[in-house]
Amino acid sequence: MAGDDELLQIERVIERLTSRYPNASPMDVEHIVRTVHKRLAECRIRDFVPLLVEKAARRELSDRAAAEATGDLVL
Predict the structure, then answer these.
(1) Are residues 67 and 74 in contact, defined by beta-carbon separation less than 8 angstroms?
(2) pLDDT for 20-71, tens place per residue?
(3) Minimal CB count within 10 Å: which of 3, 4, 58, 75?
(4) What are the CA-CA distances from residue 55 to residues 17, 49, 70, 71, 72 (Å)?
(5) Which domain, by its residues, includes 37?
(6) Is residue 34 in a domain?
(7) What b/e sequence results for 23-39 when a residue is b if at least 16 CB atoms lie within 10 Å of its CB, and e otherwise?
(8) pLDDT band, residue 1 (cuts 50/70/90)
């Protein structure tokens, strides 16, 4: 996957997750996605990076939403 295409896919991940988690701040969603993306910067095979980023960010956002619902949110 070319670098520009990967960045476009990451932008789409941010858009999808912002829509999916309307209670989360769009800035928080973007920060989480970009942080996960940076963790995968050294991966040699780039084809699945956007998918992996989305999955990890979705998990973190879901965990945060569940913590907020139960009052266990840790900042």
Answers:
(1) yes
(2) 999 999 999 999 999 999 999 999 999 999 999 999 999 999 999 888 888 7
(3) 75
(4) 10, 10, 23, 24, 22
(5) 3-70
(6) yes
(7) ebeeeebbebbeebbee
(8) low
